[in-house]
Amino acid sequence: MSAFEEMEEDGTIWMNGEYVDWEDATVHVLSHAMHYGTGIFEGVRAYDTEEGTAIFRWEEHLDRFYNSAKPYDMEIDFSREELTEATLEVIRRNDLDSAYVRPLAYYGYDSLGVSPGDCPTDVSVAAWPWGAYLGQEALENGIKVEVSSWRKHASSQIPTNAKTTGLYVNSMLAGEEARRHGAEEAIVLNKEGNVAEGPGENIFLVRDDELYTPGLSESILDGITRDTVITLAEERGYEVHDNVSISRGELHTADELFFSGSAAEVTPIRQVDNIEIGNGGRGPVTEELQTAFFDLVNRRTDDHEEWFTYV
């Protein structure tokens, strides 16, 4: 199932401490988050391994979830242990061998001033089957992308290190613009005109067998898959420059480009703005790191056992 296929509307979702049927997991139309985008979320994958279903880097995702709530003074009234057990149980109840997991916290229904006031913080966890985000073929052949006319907001405007629901309007605009023009995904630039990231992915550039990825000061989300790729690359002897500025023009002259993300995993980029990148397909460095990533998450290696939470 790709990102653009319909989800099956059945199963169980955890909401505010209760397990409810999928069709009953609803919110009030006057919820604060519905009007002002005041929610935070995570996207996490669980993989079907020989040792059972395993959530990848759950603890790091939980860290970011709670940290994302802080700029919005959002109090999450459930402990890490409660959210972990809720997530494991949702996966069990939905009988999922592999899954995409979506923890969500948002200001709910009470009042509709811009200030959330006494609005409650509602919390939910859903999980469903979700295959390659941009399609299985994209993992092998790469995707066509377009640099968007929409710019990424700066951290001086809205906290870019928080995974905030409302901020993804920017991502939606960029992605849909690219798809209208025949591309499969977008790249957004920051306010200085340097490369930031994809709508839901971090980006890596390969040049002379070295890796470059925009630093946190470039208005990017501190991606957990980004960190995974950096670790895997350094373990394989690659030099990684993870705090750089990348110009738009550098994209076109790269040896290789690829996206990373919990949904996108490791997806090669074969073309930017109708300009072929490298050999026009998945480059050798990208292929090596992609293979290492999938070997890791599917537990075909014993490396980094600490990154897995078993259902």
TrEMBL record:
Name one process (GO BP) from the record.
L-valine biosynthetic process
Name what cofactor the protein needs: pyridoxal 5'-phosphate
Q: In which pathway does it act?
A: Amino-acid biosynthesis; L-leucine biosynthesis; L-leucine from 3-methyl-2-oxobutanoate: step 4/4; Amino-acid biosynthesis; L-isoleucine biosynthesis; L-isoleucine from 2-oxobutanoate: step 4/4; Amino-acid biosynthesis; L-valine biosynthesis; L-valine from pyruvate: step 4/4
What's in the keyword line of the UniProt record?
Amino-acid biosynthesis, Aminotransferase, Branched-chain amino acid biosynthesis, Pyridoxal phosphate, Transferase
Q: Does the keyword Amino-acid biosynthesis apply?
A: yes
Which Pfam families does this UniProt record tie to the protein? Aminotran_4
Q: Which InterPro entries match?
A: Aminotrans_IV, Aminotransferase-like, B_amino_transI, BCAT-like_C, BCAT-like_N, BCAT_family, Class-IV_PLP-Dep_Aminotrnsfr
Record bears the keyword Amino-acid biosynthesis: yes
Q: Which reaction does it catalyse?
A: L-isoleucine + 2-oxoglutarate = (S)-3-methyl-2-oxopentanoate + L-glutamate; L-valine + 2-oxoglutarate = 3-methyl-2-oxobutanoate + L-glutamate; L-leucine + 2-oxoglutarate = 4-methyl-2-oxopentanoate + L-glutamate
Q: Name one GO molecular function term.
A: L-isoleucine-2-oxoglutarate transaminase activity
Q: What is its EC number?
A: 2.6.1.42
Q: What does this protein do?
A: Acts on leucine, isoleucine and valine.
Q: Which protein family is it in?
A: Belongs to the class-IV pyridoxal-phosphate-dependent aminotransferase family.
Q: What is this protein called?
A: Branched-chain-amino-acid aminotransferase
